[in-house]
Specification:
318 residues, 9-stranded mixed sheet, Purple Acid Phosphatase, chain A, domain 2, alpha/beta, 6-stranded mixed sheet
Length: 318
């Protein structure tokens, strides 16, 4: 049933999608109603769901990219989950808790959600590694928890990581004739998440344009190099290091390079290839907050111990 009693030929979910994508004037045109009626329905629905109009900047279409427009809201970004069957990592439990507590406008799984050690080109301890089907079923359970914790209308995006790619690459390289068979694509197993190479938030908005993708530059100064080369805010994973690097120049606003760290526990046996070397990694994820389309200083959530993460100067039990 539609709240507010207007535009009943359009469901609440469809109305929210139209309004957040096109704004009031275009939504009124599409629905064949008056603009004041659109605003009235938006006000009624806003009691239950935060609804933001899109930014004025035009959204361009790029292959493999998911665009998001978030004027006022939050985005939870986690990368490098490397989920295996068994006990969930500290930060995976925290990630679910933050979805429930913060109710972000969007959730981004920024690559390497799966690990796929059995189909890696690198040597593995194959006797203890899970099969791909076991991993997929385990990840389905965790992502279902996230979907249940999120509010209705939350955007769910999955920029692909190099470990995730192993699944489809295995079929493509060995049996390319299987490409049309259901099940050989990762999206077949996780239909509620938009798969992409990247996610662009608030494209064209000064101080707010933010590119989220699994990896870009490498090396010790990668986070700074990412945003320098991108020319906008840049959020990545892959390197597991977790840090925020502001960059200032003659533009009006600072921009930020963010490495979200790894949601996986860095001591997990999935990383046995590191041969017990000290790893300059941090287990955690990031919270992005947008105010009037502009990105505030990104915040990090970081593992403290097996049952606790640190956030905003406090310890949060998970």
């Amino acid at each position: 049933m539609a709240h507010g009693g207007q535009n009943k030929k359009c469901s609440d979910d469809e109305f929210i999608r139209l309004f957040t994508t096109h704004g009031a004037s275009e939504t009124a045109r599409i629905l064949g109603t008056q603009e004041r009626g659109v605003y009235a329905r938006r006000a009624s629905l806003a009691r239950f769901f935060p609804i933001s109009a899109p930014t004025k900047a035009p959204v361009k279409e790029y292959p493999g990219r998911v665009p998001l427009s978030i004027t006022n809201g939050t985005v939870l970004v986690g990368s490098d989950f490397h989920i295996w069957p068994g006990e969930a990592s500290t930060c995976l439990r925290a990630f679910k808790k933050f979805i429930k507590d913060i109710q972000p406008s969007a959730i981004i799984l920024n690559g390497d959600v799966l690990d796929f050690p059995r189909i890696s080109r690198h040597p593995q301890n194959w006797e203890s590694a899970p099969d791909p089907q076991q991993e997929i079923e385990c990840v389905q359970d965790h992502l279902n928890d996230m979907e249940q914790a999120a509010r209705r209308g939350t955007k769910k995006v999955w920029p692909i990581g190099n470990h995730d790619i192993r699944f489809e690459a295995t079929f493509a390289n060995s049996t390319p004739q299987m490409r049309g068979v259901r099940g050989v694509h990762l999206a077949d197993h996780f239909p509620n998440w938009s798969k992409a190479m990247s996610c662009m938030i608030n494209e064209g908005v000064e101080g707010g344009a933010t590119m989220v993708k699994h990896r870009f530059k490498s090396g010790q100064n990668a986070t700074r190099a990412n945003t320098l080369n991108a020319g906008i805010n840049m959020v990545t994973g892959h390197l597991h290091s977790q840090n925020v690097r502001p960059v200032s120049d003659y533009n009006r606003f600072d921009r930020y390079g963010v490495d979200t760290g790894c949601v996986a526990d860095k001591e997990h046996r999935a990383f046995s290839y590191a041969e017990d070397s000290p790893l300059d990694w941090r287990s955690g994820f990031a919270l992005l907050t947008f105010k009037d389309g502009r990105l505030l200083y990104p915040e990090l959530v970081t593992r403290w111990d097996d049952k606790t993460v640190q956030f905003r100067g406090s310890l949060v039990r998970v």
